Amino acid sequence: MSDIKEEHKEFMTDEDFDQDFFKNIERRSNIWKCIQCGTCTASCESGRWTALKTRSIVRKVVLGDLSVLDDPDIWLCTTCYQCYERCPRDVRPTDVIMELRNYATQRGNISPNHRAVVGYLKNTGHGVPINDEIRQRRIELGLEELPPTLFKFKEEGDDEDLKNFEKYMFDLPPVKEKEEETGGE
Amino acid sequence: MVKEKTFAFFLGCLMPNRYPAIEKATKFVMKKLGYEILDMEKAGCCPAPGVFRSFNKVDWMVAAARNLCIAEKLDSDILTVCNGCFGTLQEVNKHLKQNEEHRIMVNEKLQLLGDYEFKGTINVRHIGEVLGYEIGPWGIDDMIVRKVNARAAVHYGCHFLKPTRIREIESSEGPTIIEEYIEALGVQSVRFKEQLTCCGAGGGLKAYSGDASMTIFGEKMRNIDEVKPDFILDICPFCHLQFETGQDYLNKNKECNYDYPVIHISQLTAYCMGMDQEFVGLQYQLMGKNYIFGEKEMKKEQEVV
Q: What is the predicted pLDDT for the residue at B302?
């Protein structure tokens, strides 16, 4: 039985799923008020050029179609908040997408580039770490060679804060097997 | 009570690690304006509202709260020059002040990171709003030593004004705060098509799909190119990076020929307040290396500040 189920499972079922999902989305985004008017898609600055269709993403969530979590389109949003500002029903589509991305991350749907950024943060405390060229430039400008952030303290041997940060923050699930086979999304 | 005329200066990532000239300019401006600027030791990434909030909202809040705690210990409001940092820190600060359940949850996790507790005693400010409203065009007029006679394409970016119900600065559909301010510096803002749209870098898109990000940005540049401004003025180092590297990318890959200098509001203000052009740092940037403010400069009547 269970083998067959595994083989044919295309959609997620409720059992796979955190029961708080809808509660969280609802609390943050008023999603049930959506009347599918399309103002979000019409205002979408990314969707003008990409496959992102905010209206259908919201619809899928309302209908409980959780395939949306595996949909790469949810990662095309630039969080410009134009839909959020203009929605006549006060739904907050940007928050819906953020919530979906959080759940997608838990399922291991993370692009390799995003994994790398998390790596930088854990190693240096910065999403964009410094390099030798900028160190030199800072000196030329009369600034301290390193800004007084976590990274400078790490260089000086006081790395307790950064170690805690690395240990407790932004743990990502391991790379999916499927992802490895296909070279990743 | 927080200290008056004092800011804890939140650096973030892109300013100190890519555009240190903006850091130099901001410190110069704030000191000239009579503010004390305090270092936030052991601060880190804000963390960025696009990427890191997408992965784990709770950790995003905790890491932001950690930065807020550093400023709370200094009894000072935070000053940031970046829309992303502003987006994260202002939003988390406001949210945790209002939401007790989340405040307790965040404080519990904060203990794992060190001696931190979020109390909610400070506010988070953006340089655009400090210069535009607190100093204001009326106030900066007395503090500058020269004006720049130029036409600029003003780019607000997204997270400075939006979501308006959280930022509460001004309308996102027709803002004028930056235009009115730079007019006092002699700079005229030229309107262009779709002026208030995104630069295409946010939301983790630049890392996720560089192509999509550049397509969005390409449209932005076409619209800017139509009005031929002297430079692009922004208020965010991430937009700054997008305008810099984006023009370079379009030149190399899409047969464009752009060379618009990209200037942050701190850099422009510092120049008008007397900082040498050398420290404005255009020579370090990819675009508009040879642009010289002084060329069209109109001297204000000599008055020493």
A: 54
Looking only at the bridges linking them, the beta strands covering B298-299 and B262-264 are: unpaired
Backbone conformation region of residue B152, classed left if phi is above 0, alpha if psi is from -120 to 50, else beta: beta
- What chain B residue is nearest to A76 in terms of C-alpha separation? B205
CB pairs under 8 A between A and B: 189
Nearest Cβ partner of B57 from A49, A98, A141?
A: A98
Model pLDDT, residue A16: 56
Indicate the residue of B23, B163, B212 with minimum beta-carbon distance to A49.
B212
State whether residue B128 sits within 8 Å of chain A by CB.
Answer: no
CB nearest B209 (choices: A76, A85, A142): A76
**E-assigned strand segments in B81-181:** 124-126, 146-147, 150-155
CATH number for the segment(s) B137-299:
3.40.50.11810
Q: Where in chain B is the domain with CATH 1.20.1050.140?
A: 6-126
Q: In whole angstroms, what is the distance from residue B254 CA to residue A123 CA?
A: 35
CATH value of A19-106 in 1.10.1060.10, 3.30.930.10, 1.10.730.10, 3.40.50.2300: 1.10.1060.10
In this prediction the ipTM stands at: 0.93
Q: Which residues in chain A are classed under CATH 1.10.1060.10?
A: 19-106
* Contact call for A76 and B159, based on CB within 8 A: no
- Residuewise pLDDT in 10s, chain B (305 residues): 799 999 999 999 999 999 999 999 999 999 999 999 999 999 999 999 999 999 999 999 999 999 999 999 999 999 999 999 999 999 999 999 999 999 999 999 999 999 999 999 999 999 999 999 999 999 999 999 999 999 999 999 999 999 999 999 999 999 999 999 999 999 999 999 999 999 999 999 999 999 999 999 999 999 999 999 999 999 999 999 999 999 999 999 999 999 999 999 999 999 999 999 999 999 999 999 989 886 666 666 555 44
Interface check B111 vs A, CB under 8 A: no
Tokens of B143: 């503090």
Find chain B residues with C-beta within 8 A of A102's C-beta.
54-57
Taking CA–CA distances from B27, the nearest residue in chain A reads: A143
CA distance B15 to B9: 12
DSSP E strands: which ranges in B92-158? 124-126, 146-147, 150-155
Nearest CA in chain B to A165: B113
The pLDDT of residue A62 is 85
Tokens of B59: 């950790």
Region(s) of chain B under CATH 3.40.50.11810: 137-299
Contact: A149, B55; criterion CB under 8 Å: no
Q: B53: which chain A residues are within 8 Å (Cβ-Cβ)?
A: 98
What is the C-alpha to C-alpha distance for residues A109 and A99, in angstroms, rounded to an integer? Answer: 13
Residue B260: other Cβ atoms inside 10 A: 21
**Chain A residues within 8 A of B200 when measuring between CB atoms:** 45-46, 78
Cross-chain residue pair B57–A121, CB shorter than 8 Å: no
Q: Which fold has domain B6-126?
A: Glutathione S-transferase Yfyf (Class Pi); Chain A, domain 2 (1.20.1050)
